[in-house]
């Protein structure tokens, strides 16, 4: 299927999903983070939505943190690797991301097309999985599929913001129920708090690391090679290997990250 760069209607639809309560069930609310779950037709594909209010963090700072790949290596302890592949337009690119799963589950990776849009007091970033001919699935990873993932940042004044994260991902594996539960009850809330903490530290870090370099805001700074949407195709889950990990028990796993909540 052909790949299309999101337009204004796609961003509007994403924002509406973030703000709407219809069809969502609250499955976690603690320490300033709320997580909602939504049952989809396919039981393997969980749809999650999260929200956290970030005091002392302007919306613009959150937006920078979520874009800044160099800084992500500092705070995203679950990440194995990430890199940009090429740019499609001034506000769309293609990138790679891989992350650790608790052993003995296999690690996952993505190739996604990402697009972003500052809109008044709102900032949006959305992505979905694509196939790039030079970045096929890797031997030691399970190639997961993002059907729709993204962030909505809303300004609450000069020094406060609200972050929404919505994700619908097919992990390409028959995962046990405890893994799905752990994502909504532990992994997702912890990730939101980690972004918040990283955002508090970002201004000081950025002062010492290319403070004027923000290609997501200044397209003339973007040095990525240009690629065409014609080089890409939509990544369909059914074209990927499906790994059966449903028999993995929680007792056999050890988690890659610390267990604080």
TrEMBL record:
InterPro entries: STARD10_START (IPR041951), START-like_dom_sf (IPR023393), START_lipid-bd_dom (IPR002913), START_lipid_transfer (IPR051213)
Protein name (Swiss-Prot/TrEMBL): START domain-containing protein 10
Matches recorded under Gene3D superfamilies: 3.30.530.20
Gene Ontology CC annotation, any one: membrane
GO biological process, one term: lipid transport
Keyword Cell inner membrane: no
Domain START: 22-204
Region (Disordered), start-end ranges: 242-261
The UniProt record lists the keyword Cytoplasm: yes
Main location: other
Subcellular location: Cell projection, Cilium, Flagellum; Cytoplasm; Membrane
Basic and acidic residues: bias regions: 249-261
UniProt GO molecular function: lipid binding
């Amino acid at each position: 299927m052909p790949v299309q760069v999101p337009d204004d209607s796609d961003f509007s639809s994403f924002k509406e999903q973030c703000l709407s309560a219809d069809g969502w069930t609250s499955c976690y609310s603690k320490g300033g983070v709320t997580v909602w779950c939504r049952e989809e037709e396919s039981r393997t594909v969980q749809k999650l939505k999260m929200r956290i209010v970030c005091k002392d963090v302007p919306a613009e700072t959150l937006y920078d943190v979520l874009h800044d790949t160099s800084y992500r290596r500092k705070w995203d302890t679950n990440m194995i690797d990430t890199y940009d592949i090429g740019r499609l337009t001034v506000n769309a690119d293609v990138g790679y991301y891989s992350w650790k799963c608790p052993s003995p589950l296999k690690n996952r990776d993505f190739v996604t097309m990402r697009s972003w849009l500052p809109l008044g007091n709102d900032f949006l970033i959305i992505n979905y999985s694509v196939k790039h001919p030079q970045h096929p699935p890797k031997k030691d990873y399970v190639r997961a599929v993002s059907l729709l993932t993204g962030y909505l940042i809303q300004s609450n004044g000069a020094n406060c913001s609200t972050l929404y994260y919505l994700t619908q991902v097919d992990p390409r594996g028959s995962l046990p129920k405890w893994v799905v539960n752990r994502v909504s009850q532990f992994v997702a809330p912890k990730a939101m708090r980690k972004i918040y903490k990283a955002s508090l530290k970002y201004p000081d870090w950025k002062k010492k690391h290319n403070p004027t370099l923000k290609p997501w805001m200044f397209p003339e700074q973007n040095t990525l090679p240009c690629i065409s949407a014609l080089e890409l195709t939509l990544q369909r889950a059914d074209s990927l290997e499906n790994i059966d990990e449903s028999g993995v028990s929680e007792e056999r796993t050890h988690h890659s990250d610390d267990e604080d909540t």
